[in-house]
TrEMBL record:
<dbReference type="GO" id="GO:0030983">
    <property type="term" value="F:mismatched DNA binding"/>
</dbReference>
<dbReference type="GO" id="GO:0006298">
    <property type="term" value="P:mismatch repair"/>
</dbReference>
<dbReference type="Pfam" id="PF13589">
    <property type="entry name" value="HATPase_c_3"/>
</dbReference>
<dbReference type="GO" id="GO:0032389">
    <property type="term" value="C:MutLalpha complex"/>
</dbReference>
<comment type="similarity">
    <text>Belongs to the DNA mismatch repair MutL/HexB family.</text>
</comment>
<dbReference type="GO" id="GO:0016887">
    <property type="term" value="F:ATP hydrolysis activity"/>
</dbReference>
<dbReference type="InterPro" id="IPR002099">
    <property type="entry name" value="MutL/Mlh/PMS"/>
</dbReference>
<protein>
    <submittedName>
        <fullName>Histidine kinase-like ATPase</fullName>
    </submittedName>
</protein>
<dbReference type="GO" id="GO:0140664">
    <property type="term" value="F:ATP-dependent DNA damage sensor activity"/>
</dbReference>
<dbReference type="GO" id="GO:0016301">
    <property type="term" value="F:kinase activity"/>
</dbReference>
<dbReference type="InterPro" id="IPR036890">
    <property type="entry name" value="HATPase_C_sf"/>
</dbReference>
<dbReference type="InterPro" id="IPR038973">
    <property type="entry name" value="MutL/Mlh/Pms-like"/>
</dbReference>
<dbReference type="GO" id="GO:0005524">
    <property type="term" value="F:ATP binding"/>
</dbReference>
<dbReference type="InterPro" id="IPR014762">
    <property type="entry name" value="DNA_mismatch_repair_CS"/>
</dbReference>
């Protein structure tokens, strides 16, 4: 159920989510789709995302009773009380994303259908997140959010975004980041642009099929050359969970267990690291760093996550130096 956060909670967490670019919209919508247990997430950018950004998922949909509040500021179905706040920073449940997106678009449309709904409903929202209009339509279960004319009311931000020549590539990289942490989800990106009202397809449409596990996702994304030179490792404060896994099958239930059971707080670290005998050239050529906390990519450059990231990197660099490895850490996933 979507509820308002109480005032104290709002004051504690409010940092004013700022949407400054197309990529920010995609990231927020993709996270919502992941939270909704989707197994397929399709992103479509028209006119580099400035004409429209569409994120379509096949997740659980939004319950009818929740829809009036879905894009209201600080309304969320994911965080109920103050005590949950210690997980807010890492999970980013602030009930702000849809509201912030509405505020910077000409209009935002949401099509949603739960498994109980006979038909889907298309909602058109205004800049404050209020429903302006709704109508029934045919659609499969899940949710589609369409952000129309991003920054139409903020000319300076729109101009900056128009100058960006790498939006599509950046969005693809965002999807790759999520695909590594959620290998069982199919991700796709389609880019079109409007030209005399005809839509032409650009090069660069991309699909990452659903994969069994992180290692398979690595093979598909970066090739078997790199995959052969890395391994999936797991460490845990719960001795039973320790080990290395051939394939990187992640126990998705860990998160909820950890959160509900604070008495036995279990920390699990999963990492994809170069093999001791890995070819440094291959690792160096392909080496990218992806760090996740609770399955969410860590991109912030401040606060605790910053020290966490630099701690992980310095430990890795020290091990790499001792072993004479060159190149980057590949992936670290931390479950708190
Ligand atoms: N793709 C989606 N599928 C199902 N529910 C969604 C989706 N996107 C948003 N919602 C619902 O709308 C609420 C508000 O979303 P958002 O503004 O991103 O806040 P938050 O993710 O912090 O809860 C969510 O809590 C969720 O209940
Ligand atoms: Mg959200």
């Amino acid at each position: 159920m979507i509820r308002p956060l109480d005032d104290t909670t709002v004051r504690r967490i409010s940092s004013g989510q700022v949407i400054t670019k197309v990529e920010d919209v995609v990231k927020e919508l993709v996270e919502n789709s992941i939270d909704a247990e989707s197994t397929s997430i399709e992103v479509k950018l028209v006119g580099d995302g400035l004409t429209s950004i569409t994120v379509k998922d096949n997740g659980v949909g939004i319950q009818e009773c929740d829809r009036p509040a879905m894009a209201m500021r600080y309304h969320t179905s994911k965080l109920y009380k103050f005590e949950d706040l210690n997980i807010v920073e890492t999970y980013g449940f602030r009930g702000e994303a849809l509201n912030s997106i509405c505020a910077v678009t000409e209009s935002t449309q949401i099509i949603t259908k739960t498994e109980n709904d006979p038909v889907a409903t298309l909602y058109t929202l205004d800049r404050s997140g209020k429903i302006l209009d709704e109508k029934s339509m045919g659609s499969s279960p899940g949710t589609t959010v369409i952000a129309v004319k991003l920054f139409s009311n903020i000319p300076v931000r729109r101009q900056v975004a128009q100058k960006s020549t790498s939006t599509g590539k950046n969005v693809q990289n965002i999807l790759i980041t999520y695909a590594l942490a959620h290998p069982h989800i199919r991700f796709s990106l389609k880019q079109t642009y409007e030209n005399n009202s005809k839509i032409k397809f650009k090069e660069g449409d991309w699909i990452q099929p659903a994969m069994k596990n992180t290692m398979d996702a690595i093979i598909k994304l970066f090739g078997s050359e790199l995959a052969n030179d890395v391994q999936f490792c797991v460490w845990s404060s719960d001795a039973e969970l320790i080990g290395t896994s051939e394939n990187g099958n992640v126990d998705d239930d860990n998160n909820s267990n950890n959160l509900n059971n604070t008495q036995q707080f279990i920390i699990t670290l999963e990492a994809v690291l170069p093999n001791p005998d890995a070819d440094p050239y291959i690792i160096f050529k392909n080496g990218k760093t992806f760090i996740y906390v609770n399955n969410r990519p860590v991109t912030t450059n401040r606060g605790e996550t910053k020290s966490l990231v630099s701690m992980v990197k310095s430990v890795y660099n020290e091990i790499a130096r001792q072993n004479g490895w060159k190149g980057n850490i590949v992936i670290v996933m931390l479950d708190l």
